[in-house]
Structures are given as C-alpha cells and as structure tokens.
Design a protein that fits this description.
39% of the residues lie in helices and 17% in strands. The chain is elongated. With 919 residues, it is of the alpha/beta class. Helix 19 runs antiparallel to helix 20 and helix 26 runs parallel beside helix 28. It has 28 helices and 31 strands.
Amino acid sequence: MSPMTSRIPDKATVDGLEDRWNSAWESAGTYRFDASKSREEIYSIDTPPPTVSGSLHVGHVFSYTHTDTVARFQRMSGKEVFYPMGWDDNGLPTERRVQNYYGVRCDPSLPYQEGFEPPHVGGEGKSIKAADQVPISRKNFVELCERLTEEDEKQFEALWRHLGLSVDWSRTYQTISPSSIAVAQQAFLRSLARGEAYQSEAPTLWDVTFRTAVAQAELEDRERPGAYHRLAFEPAADLEEATGSYSAVYIETTRPELLPACVALVAHPDDERYQPLFGKHVRTPLFGVEVPVVPHRLAQPDKGSGIAMICTFGDVTDVVWWRELQLPTRACIGWDGRFLAEAPAAIDTPEGVAAYAELAGKTVFSAQKRIVEMLAEAGIMEGEPKPITHPVKFFEKGDKPLEIVTSRQWYIANGGKDEALRAELVARGEELDFVPSHMGKRYENWVNGLTGDWLISRQRFFGVPIPVWYKLDSEGNPVWDEPVVPTEDMLPVDPSAEPAPGFDESQRGVAGGFIGEKDVMDTWATSSLTPQIVGGWRDNPELFAKVFPMDLRPQGQDIIRTWLFSTVVRAHLEDGVLPWKHAAISGWILDPDRKKMSKSKGNVVTPMGLLEQHGSDAVRYWAASARLGTDAAFDEGQMKIGRRLAMKILNASKFVLGATGIATAANASLEDGVAVSNDVMALPVTEPLDKAMLAALASVVDQATTAYEKYDHTKALEVAETLFWTFCDDYLELVKMRAYDGAAPGEAIDASAGCSPEAGSARAALTLALETFLRLFAPVLPFATEEVWSWFREGSVHHAAWPVAAPLSAAAGASADAGVLPAAGAALSALRKVKSEAKVAQRTEIVSVDVLVPEAQVAAVRAAKADLMSAGKVRAMQIVDSVAALEPGVDGEAPEDGATDEIADTTVVRTENAVLAES
C-alpha cells in the first residue's frame, strides 16, 4: 500500500493535490524507468529540452501536456515508458541572459579571476548598457553561465512537477554537461572521418551584435522600412565603343552603401534591353571601378530597372551570383558591422579612395546616410529615394539585420549541396509519421529549399567546443587543411584549454606548435543528438539498443526546420535510420488578438500563477482540448471548465463509493475496500438502464483508445467527458434511489450485507463505470483521478491497466440498448422542466403525468420507467407516443379526436395532465 494513500475525505477538493501526489509519486518511483524491459515492451520519447534562458511560458505547458498524455496512455497500456527531461543550456540565449543578468561580457583575451563576483545580480539587467558591462575571461563567463542555468533549471523542474509531467526525473540531462559534450564531439569526429563535416572559407551570414555566424535554419524575415535609390553607372570604354552610346546605365538599389563592394551588374539573359551590354563594362559611381555587365537567370526584369548590382555581399542572391559567375571578392564590412578601414584593392584612384574614406569606420546605417548625401551632391542619384517596406533577414534571436562576411567556418552536409543526400533526406521525411500529416510538407519544403550545407560553428563562448587543433608551420601560420583530432576515449575536450595530442601547452601559439579551435558548435549541433544523449549511445549501448530508434518526437511546428530536420540528418548519417517513428507537432498559443504568443513579442503568459489559481488538472484540460498541429487561444474560461470537471470527478466518485457501499469498507480498511470493490463489480447487471450505460461506456472506451493510438488526445477527452456529464447529470440521478436500496441517500451502506437484484445491478454498473472513467481521464487529469483511486484502490491509477471494452460489453450483455440512457435522460429533463416552469423545488412530487416521447424512443423510456419515476418523484406516469395522444389511463389505445400534442422529435410533458403534489 502506498504510504500516501488516503481514505475518503469529508469534503473533497482539488486544492493541494499537486504537492501531495508529486511527493507520493517521487517516493514510490511511480514514473521511474525500468531498464530491464525488452525493446518490444518499451515506448521511448525524445522529449524537447527547453531552452534555459529565463522562464517557461504557457506555450510550453500547452505542448508538454500533449506529450504527457501520450506517455500516460502508453504506460497504462502496458508499455514501459522511457520519458526523460533535458535542459538546453548552451547557445546565444543563455549568453545574452547572463550578460543582462550579471552585467558582464566575455573577453577571451583576459585572464581568469579566481573567486570573481559579478557587479550586478538579479532581474534582467537590461538597463545596463553593453558598453558598461564588465569584461571578464571566457572561463569566468562560462562559470556564470553554469551558475545561472543551474538556478533556472531548478525553477523549470519545479513547474514541470507541479504540472504533473510523468517524466523520470532521475534521467535529467543538460546539453552542456560533460557527457553531452562528449556525445556531440564524438558525432562530429565521426562525421569528419566520413567526410560529412568540413571547413570552408566562404561568405557567411553574420550577426554583427553577437559577432557570430548564423545558419540558414536560424533566419527569419522581418518587414523593415527601406528605399530604392536610382543610381547612374557610366559606360566604360569598351561599352562606348560597342554601342556608340554614352548613356548611363541606371540601377535601383536599397543598399547604396555597398557600392564600394560592387563587382558586376546583372540582368536576365532574355532581357533585350541589356543584351547589348553583356560582356562589356561600366564604372561604379563615386569609386570609378570598372565592373562587367553579366547575364544570369535569377535577375528579375520586372524589378526596378531590371538590372541590379552584384556586391560582395548584400544578400544571399549576391552569394549565388558571385559563386556561379566566379566573380572577385571586395569586402567592405567587418565582423563588427562597421566599414573596414582600408578600401578594397580595386578602388585605386585618388577620388575613389577619398570617397571610401568618408565611409571607413562607420556603421552600415551611418554609411548609407553619408553615401546618399555624396551621391546626391555628385548628381549621380536620379530623383529622391522611393520609400518601401521589404523583408530583411535577421538572426531569429538578433536585433540588427544580418550582414554577409567571408570567414572560415565548419559545416556538416545536409543535402544543401548534394542532390543525392537531399533525396535521401526527403525520403526519410516521407517515411516518418507526422501528426498531423500535413506537417510533413513543411519538412519536405524545407529540405528542397536548402541553399547550402549546415553551418555549425559559432564564434561564441558557452557551447560545445569543436574538438580540433591546428598545427602551426615554421612561420606560425595555421595549417587549416590538416586538423589534429583527439581519440574518442579522450572526450570531452576543450582545445582552447587543453594541448593538442602530441604537443604540450608550452607549444601553444608558437611556430612549429599548435593552436586550438576557438569556435563552438551551434546549439542545434548538440540538440540534434538528444536521442543519442538520453539513450546512452556513447556510454550505454545496451540501453541505446532498447530505446533507439525512439517511438515519438513531440515538438513545435516552428522548429521542424531546425530541431526535427537536424536530428533526422544526424541519425541518417550515423545509423542510416530515422531517429523516431512518429513526430507529434503542436500548434501555437494565440493571444486574445489571435497573434502567436512569443517572448520576443512580449505577449506571453507565465504559467505558475495559472497552475496555482485554477489547479494543474484544469490547465492541463485546457491544453488537451486542442489537437496536435492546431493553434489554440489562451482561454482561462476553458481552465475553469477543467477545474469544474476535476471537482465533479471527486464529488461524483464520493457518491458512487457511498451508494455502492465501497466507501464504508474503504474508510474502515483499504484492503477491505478493494475486496468490496471487486465483489460489487462481480454482481450481475440486470436492469436495462444499467446495461445501456455500460454499453455506451464500452463504445467510449473503444473510441478513446483509437484516438490515443492516433495521437488524438482531444478526441479521447471529448468522448469521455461527454458521456461522463451524461453519467453525472442523468444516470446518477436516475439510479440513486435504486442503488441505495431503501436507505436514505448519504447513509452508510454495508455492501457485504446483501441487496436486491435491482440494487446490485446499479452498484455493479456504478463501480464499473467509476473505475473506467478514472482510467479514461487519468492521462489528462492525473491529480484528481489519482486522488479518487487512492480512496478505494491500492497502487496508482497511472499503473492501472488502460480500460478495454470487453468487460463492459460482457456486463451489459448482447441485449443492451444504448439508447435507453439518452432517452431516459431526455424524459428526466422534461420532468425537471415542468417543476422549473411551475417554480417549485425539484424535490416536489408529481402526482401523475403524461410524458410524450418520440415513437422511436418509447420502448427505451419504458425500460427505464421505474428509475425515471423514482428520480422525478412521480407517483403515476404514462409514457405516450408523441405522435399519438392517448386517452387518460389507457396505454396504447388510438388517439382521441382533436388531440393536438403531436411532437415527433422531442420528449415533453403534457402539461395539462401533469399534477404536482403542492398544486
């Protein structure tokens, strides 16, 4: 018996259930994973590790509840559920939070300070300007990252426990722990050995605020104001000779500041306006550099003047043109987002150099402002700039538009360049069971839209170090093409702090020695390996064989292109398989204006207050009311409905246990309560109304089971809840007196003393229904159902077997008419309406009444007549075919002439024949 098992309280409440049951579950190891089970017995979940960079929001509660319903259903269905939780610690969000929280910034050139304490602690620290942040060493900065994430993780775990997530908390992991770093580094080294990981000096999307490279998957377009500037390029000598024209060529650009980086003009090959110019040259305004006019299919004849300048680099199309047309590189923007001090070598005239000097050292914004002034002063710009709004690429966590700079970076092949690999990854997506299925199209579109391989290196500090070193030649230059790598048994390693194999620390940075790679991997390069990290790929192959490939990947739709795709890439490259069988994709939470909730928009709701106000079961109910892939409105009204349902489960259960006599035994001794419960369920079910209820319940069990098997928790909840309210509002009222078998409702019942067959039928049906409903609701409402289960059963409801229809159908029998319950409920409602309209209490007796019933329901209502009369407190009742009004006191005769009560589809009471006791 669980030490936390309670008897039935005098007054049931949902308040305080979370703390009590979380403590009991932890003590009993209710959700602890049993690794001794076989692969066939295990259901494994690749749970999303939330980013530890602040607080969770209600969107997390929404999607993680969906996953938990799956875990609980699978556990009750007999599976051993592998359900760990992780924390995504590393990456830019954590670094930015640490900078704001502690008022510091990282400067790798500084020495480590023992016992360093930050100048500011607490809040978000956003009032501290970047220039005022105290510079500290990389090691000090990493220590602060670790300190803050540890505190955040404690808060995250407390909230998840309060919500009732049934994860195995003994298997919590961090993406920046030594074991996770070792897994990420081992996977990288194996990709390097297979030729999938490589480094390249190439144009790179660059965030000037964080001064780091950014991958394609981390981009987002934001609408920004801009302007078209119409600029004149004068023809060079070869163009004048070929065309005999001295007319300028006009282009329209939103980035005139990139004129010093211009390497060509481009037009579509079929554009007749510019065909005579192809292969000839023009001169760049202000800088006087001759650049060719070239054709390319990506040029857009209908955009601006139909001819554009190619700069290195203004956008990703420039990169495509530069690469395919084999154009030179003229960089003018540095890693800090400012114009370089020296002009590109092609600018070699005094006038051009002087013009560039006006831009050197300026930010992009200031440089654009100045060059527009210069163009206007020189008469090169035609007319005024034309204001526009256009999409501009940003790092998803950044505040300034991205630039493109040339840098040496590490990549992993992902099909962006290799068509064969791309086709294989598309096929993997077709193999994966997406729920809902249309989410698979997003995956396919992403893979087919890739323009390059996966850039995994980041110029940051708190992350997984890229595990390579580089030899230095006799002149101290790195030999980039021959990286020095560790053996797998050396992992994890930090090349910036540990010497390369075969060297000692004294040889770092000197000719003939080595240098360590300073870059770290992007966060997805680690998160893409969550199945390997939690499954023991590196250090527990026996466990890994039992849980991988995993059964389920639950996640948000916005990270299909990042987390889902990158995980598929790693599993495909390493093991040639999908990492999981199913991908359950949650929708978004919308605010009252129907806008997606997100931290960046400032419209999120933090969940702990909601959990404390409404109760965790109520918040889970709201979350479970939305299907996978469907956006849902934040709705506290739904939470109030969920709380009402949880309370109804407690109160209805108290009634059932009292009416069946189980309560008396349970309050005396739990073991006796269990025995009585089993004995009561074994009683024969003989009454039509009881059979009808059980038949309906059997159908609901089948529907709910099918729904959960299809990852449709909403349908499962919907069908169970619909019948439950009918059970409470109609069935319990109809059978109350019969179940008590002459005793007053609320009076202690001794089930072992025997009862009439009619009462035994009701008690058996009630007990069967209660146990079934508790198990049906357990995945969504774990606290209320566990509370009731503990009143009369040993163990946890969450380890009870998921209900099946067969015992219910057997108890109902082949002759059960499921229509009896709704028909009797409609008749009871009609009787209640009479009393309400007469403004008398529902306990008022009805001396006699005619109930007019649709023809198809007459037999069903008659089958429940005794219960109907008891529940409605009716002394004499005539059940009448509503199409044939009968003579008073005669059942089944032809209708009288002039009868007017002809209602074919609704059960009503013939009011002139309804006699109330008090009237």
